[in-house]
Design goal:
about 525 residues, six-stranded mixed β-sheet, eight-stranded mixed β-sheet
Length: about 525
């Protein structure tokens, strides 16, 4: 299918409504919206946001689970030329404070609770918000426990009743393809997540290529069980499907049985999945009783493509990508032989250049030789207000240095081999070791903490740690983990903890912690216990 004419979010919305107006665009746990209905809701909310004072380049943060309103807010903000700040729903108060403060967010639209997380309580922990977050001028709430002074979502929508269409049409006319549309967060080697800038053009053009590799059409229905704030969902999945006129089915809360039910009831032809989800649905007893005959495509890691094929999804694609590079930069083709899709991530998308270099010399390495993966083309303009990191990540020739290890095969396909960076990849989530270590070090019994990733059959890696007790204290592992669960996002909670003496922490010749030997020791111990 040809690329849409539009290169902005609101332009794409208008074009798809014109072409596929009465076709279903999004289905969530409560309702269904056609392309026309979606556009009408977006425009009404945009009027409300305009009345609230949202203008070009304003940052509007969104803290919400997988529901249709997430998409309505996304397109209403960007229609006005604003920037949507997608906030991680697993974060606690300190992480929320960092996200809102570091992005200069002036408006926060939030649910009060989601999946056991109490966001209203987390915001109250920050104290006087006028001092804690001086740039935050308005909070819009959904739910029963709203913060003092908050507007309700319905009130915001109603505020648009007095706004003329011409005002928002004029705002939309100023939106340009290379304007920033999103600030999405990604972990790094430091303790704080970084905000990645992504443009309207990159979201649409790059992901259209992903949809082409899946051979999507307006008849496809894609189930999205992954969180909306992830680039896998709000970049990769959303625009791959939308640029082809297809439909999105949002899973509000991940549950393997509910996922399988929706696949049958909604006649989903595609599924975006992660290794742990793939393994869970393959092993689930309900799979044998569900009609999955409509399912043919979607994305998954090459390691689980075979399982998807076994379940009847003959055209699933594998891929490689990062938030900084619009979800995926490399993808296989759904028509490639299954053996190929099981072996590697595929070839660069149209408009993407791939290079593998020696990490020390910076020179390209021959095919078949591993080195650092570099990408050029659809890459972020940079991290928001982080010039130092931008200089490190993007060189003078526009190459984005991923820090990942890969091999280019003879046919030009990329085989992903691992990470030069210390990021832990657990269940599809990038976790910075420093994030985990900071949580542990805040506990009064912990003197030292070292976090690494160790291989795991179902999650790629798990977060494993060595911890050293404060002098005169002992560490109760169960109590320590309970503390972590209370104070940090779930993905930062270690799954394997080894209490050691300070002398047992591996060190380099210069006295620094040797992460490689720490990982080896924890991996050996973990495998001895768990096989």
């Amino acid at each position: 299918m040809d690329l849409p004419r539009a290169r902005t979010f609101p332009g794409l919305m208008d074009e798809m409504a014109e072409r596929y107006g009465e076709r279903n665009f999004v289905t969530d746990f409560r309702r269904r919206l056609s392309y026309n209905e979606f556009r009408a809701e977006v425009r009404q909310l945009a009027k409300g946001l305009h009345a609230l004072g949202v203008r070009r380049d304003d940052k509007v943060a969104l803290l919400m689970g997988n529901q249709a309103e997430w998409l309505v807010i996304d397109f209403a903000v960007t229609l006005l030329g604003g920037v949507l700040v997608a906030v991680n729903t697993w974060w606690k108060h300190s992480e929320l404070h960092h996200a809102l403060g570091s992005t200069d967010s002036s408006v926060l639209i939030m649910v009060d609770r989601y999946l056991g997380n109490d966001y209203s309580a987390a915001m109250r922990e920050m104290g006087d918000l006028s001092k804690a977050l001086p740039d935050l001028k308005h909070i819009v709430g959904l739910g029963d426990d709203l913060l003092p002074g908050s507007l309700t979502y319905d009130q915001l929508v109603a505020m648009g009743n007095g706004v003329d269409d011409a005002l928002i049409d004029a705002a939309q006319a100023l939106v340009q393809p290379d304007d920033t549309a999103y600030l999405l967060f990604t972990s790094g080697s430091t303790a704080r997540s970084k905000a990645v800038q992504l443009t309207h053009r990159g979201n649409i053009e790059n992901t259209h290529g992903i949809g082409e590799r899946m051979h999507l059409t307006e008849h496809d229905r894609m189930l999205m069980p992954t969180s909306m704030f992830w680039s896998l969902t709000c970049v990769n999945g959303l625009f791959a499907v939308m640029s082809h006129g297809g439909s999105l089915v949002l899973l509000f809360k991940y549950d393997a049985a509910e996922l399988l039910r929706l696949m049958e009831v909604e006649r989903c032809t595609g599924l975006y999945t992660l290794p742990n989800i793939a393994l869970a649905i393959h092993a689930h007893p309900d799979r044998a009783t569900r009609d999955l005959s409509a399912w043919r495509t979607g994305t998954a890691r090459s390691a689980v493509i075979g399982l998807m094929y076994e379940m009847g999804a003959k055209e699933m694609i594998s891929g490689y990508g990062l938030t900084e590079c619009y979800g995926h930069s490399i993808d296989s083709d759904g028509y490639d032989p299954i053996e190929t899709r099981m072996r590697n991530a595929g070839k660069p998308l149209t408009g993407v250049e791939l290079k593998v270099i020696h990490p020390e010399t910076g020179e390209p390495v021959p095919q078949g030789t591993q080195g650092e993966i570099l990408l050029r083309g659809y890459v972020t303009p940079g991290y928001y207000k982080n010039p130092e990191r931008n200089r490190e990540a993007i060189d003078a020739d526009g190459w984005f240095h991923t820090g990942d290890i890969g091999v280019v095969e003879e046919d030009g396909s990329l085989s992903f081999r691992g990470r030069y960076k210390e990021l832990i990849k657990t269940g599809g989530i990038n976790v910075a070791p420093a994030d985990v270590e900071d949580v542990l070090l805040a506990h009064p019994d912990v003197q030292q903490a070292v976090a690494v990733g160790v291989p795991d059959k179902t999650r790629d890696e798990i977060v494993a740690v060595m911890v050293v007790a404060q002098p005169g204290r002992t560490i109760d592992v169960d109590e320590l983990l309970a503390y972590c669960r209370r104070t940090a996002a779930a993905f930062k909670v270690p799954r394997f903890v080894q209490v050691v003496d300070a002398s047992e922490i591996p060190l380099t010749d210069t006295g620094k912690i040797h992460k490689g030997r720490t990982q080896e020791a924890l991996t050996k111990r973990y495998q001895a216990l768990h096989g």
